[in-house]
From TrEMBL:
<dbReference type="GO" id="GO:0046872">
    <property type="term" value="F:metal ion binding"/>
</dbReference>
<dbReference type="GO" id="GO:0051539">
    <property type="term" value="F:4 iron, 4 sulfur cluster binding"/>
</dbReference>
<dbReference type="InterPro" id="IPR007197">
    <property type="entry name" value="rSAM"/>
</dbReference>
<keyword id="KW-0963">Cytoplasm</keyword>
<feature type="binding site">
    <location>
        <position position="328"/>
    </location>
    <ligand>
        <name>S-adenosyl-L-methionine 1</name>
    </ligand>
</feature>
<feature type="binding site">
    <location>
        <position position="60"/>
    </location>
    <ligand>
        <name>[4Fe-4S] cluster</name>
    </ligand>
</feature>
<keyword id="KW-0408">Iron</keyword>
<dbReference type="InterPro" id="IPR006638">
    <property type="entry name" value="Elp3/MiaA/NifB-like_rSAM"/>
</dbReference>
<dbReference type="GO" id="GO:0051989">
    <property type="term" value="F:coproporphyrinogen dehydrogenase activity"/>
</dbReference>
<feature type="binding site">
    <location>
        <position position="67"/>
    </location>
    <ligand>
        <name>[4Fe-4S] cluster</name>
    </ligand>
</feature>
<dbReference type="GO" id="GO:0005737">
    <property type="term" value="C:cytoplasm"/>
</dbReference>
<dbReference type="InterPro" id="IPR034505">
    <property type="entry name" value="Coproporphyrinogen-III_oxidase"/>
</dbReference>
<feature type="binding site">
    <location>
        <position position="242"/>
    </location>
    <ligand>
        <name>S-adenosyl-L-methionine 2</name>
    </ligand>
</feature>
<feature type="binding site">
    <location>
        <begin position="112"/>
        <end position="113"/>
    </location>
    <ligand>
        <name>S-adenosyl-L-methionine 2</name>
    </ligand>
</feature>
<feature type="binding site">
    <location>
        <position position="183"/>
    </location>
    <ligand>
        <name>S-adenosyl-L-methionine 2</name>
    </ligand>
</feature>
<feature type="binding site">
    <location>
        <position position="171"/>
    </location>
    <ligand>
        <name>S-adenosyl-L-methionine 2</name>
    </ligand>
</feature>
<dbReference type="Pfam" id="PF04055">
    <property type="entry name" value="Radical_SAM"/>
</dbReference>
Amino acid sequence: MEDLSRLQALGLFDARVPRYTSYPTAPVFSIASCLALQEECLSALDPADPVSVYVHIPFCERLCWFCAYRTQGTRTLSPVEHYLDTLLAELALLRAALPVGIRMGRLHWGGGTPTILPPYLICTLAEAIKAAVPPASPFEFSVEVDPTLFDAEKVAALQSVGMTCASIGIQDFDPKVQAAIGRKQTFAATRRCVETLRKAGGVSLNVDLVYGLPHQTREVVAASLRQVLSLEPDRIALFGYAHVPWMAKRQELIDEAHLPDDRLRHSLFVECAETIVGKGYAAIGIDHFAKSADALSEALRRGTLRRNFQGYTADACQTLIGIGASAISRFPQGYVQNAVATGAYMQRIDSGSLAGYRGHALTQDDKLRARAIEMLMCQFRIDLNSLLSEFGALARTLNPIHDLIVARYSPYITRTADCIAIDSSGAALTRMVAAGYDAYTPAGVVYSRAT
Ligand SMILES: C[S@@+](CC[C@H](N)C(=O)[O-])C[C@H]1O[C@@H](n2cnc3c(N)ncnc32)[C@H](O)[C@@H]1O
Ligand code: SF4
């Protein structure tokens, strides 16, 4: 507890900082010349380098109160079908804008709830994507799965189009916690989903858990985690609940009086992490865990772990093409985000134009800071020699920041000739340390808590 008081004195419980799934973060993107940037980046792609593709499905059958994602509830398929037509139109526009011969190394469907798609739409969408950007070899295809909106026919359809990884939303199995976050999901239904996926074969399994939810106690979370571990997932993501009702209006339904206090919240993470690591999983970055044979563990060992919009990844592709409402593309030259509201996105595509609405052209200084931040988020250290060899003398411009960070966060941060390193006892400070390298403070933006 003494350490926790020191971390608290450094602002751990007060800081509101980005999660750094990109640098600069999306609120920094500006709307000027974004379509020109998108067209320029797409046409400049080198067909020799496979790209990754992300497709966003912003629909759910249920709208969980805790969820910070922008998604639309629907009980009927017609808005989903209409949206699918727009995705197909966007794919046709992309196909025309991309150089001939581009291949796709990875595909991810996220949301919202991609498993809201019935089997025929799963196949239609997958085939259209593969026609626009044919798969490379090897090819990986991951899908976010809601176990309450999933059946054997959907698994068969996903398997027939090449799914290799399913990411299953769990959060917490405790009925009182589930009632307080507006999300019912039994262990039995989740286990059925896992068994169906295992029976299909060839699919690695990730599960999402959340700590810091209302009514979570050490005992409640430990019991939930025992059930999760009995499912033997290949990866576990353990997210801190981001309570941001000013951005996600649904969260106003969450009773703040029942949220764990700062110290309990912190210990929920620490105790879960210890249990998961005790079961043989490797800790990956700030909030992921993976079995030792998993690609994330392998990437961590090799020093090739990356951070992207989905969290941590072993994906080495330089380019990520985002398709659908609010999807963000990352190019070597910069970022482009599609129109965020589903209606606005559909209008843009219907008018025959690509859907980029805001973006950011990366300067060398951005690239340097992005690399330093990614190193911190992935390896808890900045390799100074590697920055020097990648960026030359420009890397030295970070020296005053290194000094400041070391002075501010000592003894948790140390500097040697080769690196700036965060000690494991100060790992909770990582997002705050990363924020020290952020040159932007977008006006009016309040991020989620640092831990
Ligand atoms: C886009 S959601 C898709 C999950 C899928 N629709 C489901 O419900 O199973 C991906 C994950 O984001 C995480 N998430 C959503 N809202 C969050 C919040 N406010 N704080 C932390 N994690 C959150 C949850 O763990 C969730 O499983
Ligand atoms: S957690 Fe999943 S199902 Fe619930 S609202 Fe968010 S995206 Fe939709």
